Amino acid sequence: MLKTLKGYIGEYRKTAVMAPVFIILEVILEMVIPLLMAAIIDDGLGKGNMGYVIKVGLIMLAVSIASLYCGAMAAKLAATASTGFAKNLREAMYNHIQEFSFSNIDRFSTAGLVTRLTTDVTNVQNAFQMIMRMFTRAPITLVTAMTMAFLINARLSLVFLGALVFLGCVILVLMGKVGPYFREMFEKYDGLNASVQENLTGIRVVKAYVREEHETNKFKKASEALFRCSLRAEKVMVTMMPIMQFTVYTCIILISWLGAKTIVVGGMTTGNLMSLFTYTMNILMSLMMIAMVSVMISMAKSSAERICEVLGEESSLTSRKDAVREVESGSISFEDVCFSYHGDKENLHLSHVNLSIAPGETVGILGGTGSAKSTLVQLIPRLYDVTSGCVKVGGVNVKDYDLDTLRNQVAMVLQKNVLFSGTIKENLRWGDQEASDEELVRVCRLACADEFIRQFPEQYDTRIEQGGTNVSGGQKQRLCIARALLKKPKILILDDSTSAVDTHTDAMIRKAFREEIPDTTKLIIAQRVSSVQDADKIIVLNDGQIDGIGTHETLMEENAIYREVYESQQKGGDMDEQ
Fold first, then answer.
1. Which end of the chain offers a freer environment for a tag, N or C, measured as fewer CB atoms within 10 Å?
2. What is the distance between the terminal CA atoms of the chain, rounded to a whole angstrom?
3. Residue 420, CB half-sphere, CA atoms under 13 Å: how many?
């Protein structure tokens, strides 16, 4: 884990090294100050030598300024290194997530990934900064102050050794106890973020069904679960402070009592006792710092493990080194394809599918809910890998293609249409960053989107709000279709992507496809028979298996499922007309 995280310090490695160097200098200078103070008391004030007091006082001032400068530089360098480390870590995680297959993404919840990118990285960042500053400063201060204290009076300094052993045992016990609580706490953060995300994403549905109170209660439960878990961790952590204070005051009382007796018998000067008190506070403050950092490291350890889970996740879909980088044609073939989302051959979502589609064909896909229509087409651009069998595009196994090459030639408009914040132009150019304005207009006309875009005051420069909330479902679908067309793909897949448009617009889109992109292989998943009725062939799926393939006329004669769907829709249409 540490080896993994260390690699992301990157260009801030030098800064991360220099911060502890300045801290060491600061500590050394601080340790000199009590000696100078003792000299002022014993050799200056004690002997009435004011010139010596002024001289040593000026030296003490210079040392203090130098210590202050080193402390400021250490703080600046530590902040720069820790924030830079966090930046690199977030970028690495985000970039790694982009390489995930759908299977990889399914392993992590969206809320869980957000928590890892934000809260967990912040915890690791804070721990890294504390390690550079406190965890460097505390041991050095501790060792230096202990050494100086032993030089002043070895017998009195044995008090510190007892305190050191006692607090070390306490820290080890508390760290072991609080670690599991932190791990559980971050899982509760995931649940809280999931509740917020789900509510905000579906806020219109929540209000439409007057479910605000239900959502509030759901959030309250997640928040209370996080509160209870955090409270358990805090109860363990807060015991640290009383124990530390008890140890500090016990040491001060013992040093005062034993030190006074030593001065009486002439074994130590008043100045030395004052210096010893200063070193006492340095030692005990160092122990408190170590305790604080230990708790922070325990928290960060849980976060670091969650971060490394993401960074260590290997994508289940990768391109071969000798991958094919050109798709010859839009032909598609399924050869005895079986598929399970969990790789379980006993629980297949697609079972022994054999299918052949010629380049330029228009293929309709029908089936009931859960019949695996979307699953079938997601295997073509290799969003998932088959469990067994083979999917070929252009006569080549999709596993042999470079992923970018394959997906650039297989444009897919998913069932859930997504638009991003930005202008209509910016959203369309996801299909082709170099597309001219004329190309944008052309594909929008093919998708029957140009007409409604022209009605906006700013037309193609109209800003799309997050999630496309300021356009209708049908408009969103048409913009997504236009975006896919801009890729000039050899295969175009519409996964129920015209469900929100009227039948006339649907027919216009299909007509434009036939006339303008005849060489593109088109797969259309639809619920309406009218959307696929004029396709070259229609595939009927039932429970993950092909129940029938043929034209509309053939299936009307030979396939009971297709005929039943058609007749039910025709009957429904007749009732609507009445």
1. C
2. 69
3. 7
Predicted confidence (pLDDT) at residue 92 exceeds the cutoff of 50: yes
> pLDDT band at 500, cuts 50/70/90?
low
522 contacts 357 by C-beta, under 8 angstroms: no
- Cα 351 to the chain's mean position, in Å? 35
- With 60 as the cut, is the pLDDT of residue 572 above it? no
| Count of helix runs (H) and strand runs (E) in the chain | 20, 12
Spatial CB neighbours of 346, under 8 Å, sequence gap ≥ 6: none
Apex 428 CA angle, 423 and 429, nearest 5 = 100
Range list of H helices, 202-269? 203-208, 212-238, 240-264
HSE-up of residue 5 (Cα within 13 Å, Cβ side) = 20
Contact present, 334 and 389 (Cβ < 8 Å): yes
Q: Are 12 and 81 in contact (CB under 8 A)?
A: yes
Q: What is the pairing mode between strands 396-397 and 388-393? A: antiparallel
Q: What is the pLDDT of residues 27-69, one digit of tens each?
A: 778 777 777 776 777 666 666 677 777 887 788 788 888 888 8
Contact between 26 and 73 (Cβ < 8 Å): no
Residue 30: how many CB atoms within 10 A of its CB? Answer: 20
Closest residue by Cα to residue 282 from 56, 43, 67: 67
**Closest to 250 in 3D by CA, of 169, 163, 143, 170:** 163
Asked if 479 contacts 443 with a C-beta cutoff of 8 angstroms, the reply is no
Is-contact 134 19, C-beta < 8 A?
Answer: no
Q: Using the structure block, give the residue that is written with the tokens 């400021």.
A: 72
Query: For 312-351, where are the alpha helices, taking DSSP H only?
Result: none
Left if phi > 0, otherwise alpha if psi is -120 to 50, otherwise beta: which for 390? beta
CA-to-CA distance for 393 and 399, rounded, in angstroms? Answer: 10
The two three-digit tokens of residue 570, written as one number: 């025709």
Q: How far apart (Å, rounded) are the C-alpha atoms in residues 274 and 280?
A: 10
CA dihedral 548→552→558→560, nearest 10 degrees, is 80
Read off the pLDDT of each residue in 188-209 and give the average, rounded to a whole number.
71
What per-residue confidence (pLDDT) applies to 42?
66
Q: 138 near 290, Cβ under 8 Å?
A: yes
Determine the Cα angle at 219 with ends 215 and 222, to 5°.
140
- The answer to whether 354 and 549 are in contact (CB under 8 A) is no
Nearest to 231 by CA among 170, 289, 184, 171: 184
* Tens digits of residue pLDDT in 187-198: 777 777 777 766
Are 49 and 43 in contact by the 8 Å Cβ rule? The answer is yes
**What does the alpha-carbon distance between residue 482 and residue 251 come to, in Å, rounded to a whole number?**
76
3-state secondary structure of 101: coil
Count the residues in the chain: 578
Query: What is the residue whose two structure tokens read 């008090």?
Result: 159
| Contact present, 555 and 562 (Cβ < 8 Å) | yes
pLDDT-derived band at 289, boundaries 50, 70, 90 = confident
Determine the Cα–Cα distance for residues 408 and 431; give it in Å rounded to an integer: 9
Q: What is the mean pLDDT of the chain?
A: 78
Q: State how far the Cα of 461 lies from the Cα of 473, in Å rounded to an integer.
A: 19
